[in-house]
Specification:
The complex is a heterodimer. By secondary structure, chain A is mainly alpha-helical. Chain A has twelve helices and no strands. The chains are: A mainly alpha, B alpha/beta. Chain A: Its main location: membrane.
């Protein structure tokens, strides 16, 4: 791999900047403490202190790694202090929202392609929906859905009847999934409209010469043509869905999930916790996008598309 | 008219409404094509030769006059799947194998699995692509792709084959070879072929009837019944007869332009 050296160089540079930033930003606290205690700190003492504070302004990378290790590997995954537990809460909302959003997006795209009225009316609304800050909509939606009692997946009673106790991720899942869907349907609509319209006039004429039905044209021409667009949309959609789930967790109850960890972290000045949740979210996003990418390569290869 | 008439156009007019006003694509076109004819349409771009072919295929709606295919209106004939159409580009689906592409019309028309396999094998052999059924389009050369698209048009055994500059994008050597194969195929299947081209040698070499057209408005300026024997090889292009016919085609094209000035 020839690219490994450039990549490592960039990583090393980022680390250096991060450490320098940590020393600089945390030194104020260290110096204040020393002044109050009436002692002088040497440069090496400042460095040691700034990289080992309990609530640093900017935690050093190794502190974040330690925090991640402690909250994932060393904690039982059912513990409320486990990042795996919170990651699963977020992941479940992300996936459910992604499924909703993708389904809605595909349906809308089919409607837009086949109905002129929908083409004229739906698209402007879809665009408008994305211009409204999700941060403003999320709390309102959570409140509304709480009021009408649509918060738990399957409902508490059903879940208890099925599983004995209500699984943790099901509690408060619906508002988060709806917000995740709200963000993820849009790229799917845009991509699928483009994809379903990808066949050119000649290919559509060819179907006419066969006197093909609308359904045959859809299943045999439009849908296969849209696949490359579909997967590209899914990659954007799943990342948007994760963002939606995390944003929703900032206002949802109970306060759980990666968004919840960030929120409680900021309440109590637990910067380590915030950073660990951030890294967790980034890893989750990379994994999800990677998964869709693998699915894309597999599907397109099976369809015989030129690799 | 005898019952051998396959396609008949009477005073056909076709006008496109564009943003720059109406464009008279076809004006007063009269033509009869008999069963087993190989008819070429030749003329400069904009002369309406492709539009005429598309009107036969009911891909365009005439503004005036009538066009019948197999005694029906062109649209009825389309719905009865009376013809196979070959476009300028092969237009094979990249996600289907060659055999899968040829099966496409058969699937749409509801053939059984066994029938499909049989038809696919038959037409693959007709276009000399035996053994390529499992390949994907991108694995084939341009000429082979175009042959596959001809196979696709032949797959459901329509009696009429309409071809819109099928070899226009190919180089001359490949083109000569495909022309030879097309004549062979025509002799074996006895189909009626409508063939749009802008190459004089191609038109003369292939056709039993050459329709010379001219633009603005698109109309027929000459219809030449070829005197060449049905069974011909590429060498025939060096005979005096061939040169005479080509000369007449060229005259017809020039006359069409003269009206313009």
């Amino acid at each position: 791999m020839r690219s490994i050296i450039p990549i490592l160089t960039v990583v090393a540079a980022l680390m250096a900047i991060w450490y320098a930033g940590a020393i600089w930003m945390n030194s104020k606290w260290a110096l204040d403490q020393a002044e109050r205690a009436g002692v002088e700190l040497s440069l090496s003492e400042i460095v040691t202190d700034t990289l080992a504070q309990e609530r640093p302004v900017l935690p050093a990378p190794h502190q974040v790694v330690t925090e991640l290790w402690q909250t994932t590997v060393e904690k039982n995954i059912t513990s409320k202090r486990s990042l795996v537990f919170h990651g699963w809460i977020t992941l479940s909302a992300t996936l459910l929202g992604f499924i909703f959003g993708t389904g809605l997006g595909v349906l809308l795209a089919v409607g837009i392609v086949y109905s002129r009225a929908m083409d004229m009316s739906v698209m402007p609304w879809a665009i408008a929906s994305q211009t409204i800050p999700i941060l403003a909509i999320a709390p309102m939606l959570v409140v509304v859905m709480n009021t009408i009692g649509a918060t738990d997946f399957l409902g508490k009673d059903t879940a208890e009847a099925l599983f004995g106790t209500q699984p943790a991720f099901m509690k408060g899942l619906l508002p988060k999934a709806v917000i995740a869907a709200y963000l993820s349907f849009f790229p799917v609509v845009v991509g699928m409209v483009k994809g379903l319209r990808a066949p050119d006039a000649m290919q559509l004429d060819l179907m006419r010469t066969y006197s093909a039905s609308g359904a045959a044209t859809f299943w045999k021409l439009r849908l296969p043509s849209s696949m490359p667009y579909f997967f590209t949309s899914l990659k954007i959609g799943i990342a948007a869905s994760l963002v939606g789930a995390i944003v929703a967790e900032l206002s949802a109850s109970p306060i759980r999930g990666l968004g919840g960890r960030m929120l409680t972290g900021s309440y109590y000045g637990q910067t380590l916790q915030i950073w660990a949740a951030l890294i967790g979210a980034a890893v989750l996003a990379a994994a999800l996008v990677g998964l869709i990418g693998a699915l894309q390569r597999g599907t397109l290869r099976r369809m015989g598309m030129k690799p | 008219m005898d019952q051998d008439v396959v396609i008949e156009a009477n005073n056909l007019d076709l006008t496109f409404q564009t943003n720059d006003g109406p464009v008279h694509a076809l004006k007063d076109v009269n033509l009869t094509i008999n069963k087993g004819d190989f008819v070429s349409f030749i003329g400069p771009s904009g002369c309406g030769k492709t539009t005429f072919l598309r009107a036969m295929a009911a891909l365009e709606e005439p503004s005036n006059g009538s066009i019948t295919v197999n005694g029906m209106s062109a649209d009825e004939a389309r719905r009865n799947r009376a013809y196979g159409y070959v476009f300028q580009a092969a237009g094979l689906y990249p996600w289907r194998t060659i055999a899968g592409n040829i099966k496409l019309p058969l699937e749409i028309m509801g053939f059984s699995k066994a029938e499909m396999a049989e038809h696919v094998n038959k037409v693959l052999e007709l276009v000399d692509l035996k053994g390529f059924g499992k390949k994907f389009p991108w694995q084939l050369s341009g000429g082979m792709q175009q042959r596959a698209s001809i196979a696709r048009a032949l797959a459901f055994d329509a009696d009429i084959l309409l071809m819109d500059e099928p070899f226009g994008a190919l180089d001359e050597i490949v083109r000569d070879h495909l022309n030879e194969q097309l004549l062979e195929l025509w002799a074996r299947t006895e189909k009626t072929i409508g063939f749009v081209t802008h190459s004089i040698p191609e038109a003369v070499y292939l056709s039993t009837k050459i329709v010379v057209m001219s633009p603005r408005p698109g109309r027929i300026t000459d219809i030449i019944e070829s005197t060449l024997p049905k069974d011909r090889s590429l060498d025939i292009r060096d005979t005096q007869e061939f040169i005479d016919i080509a000369h007449r085609v060229r005259e017809g094209l020039r006359a069409g332009h003269g009206d313009d000035a």
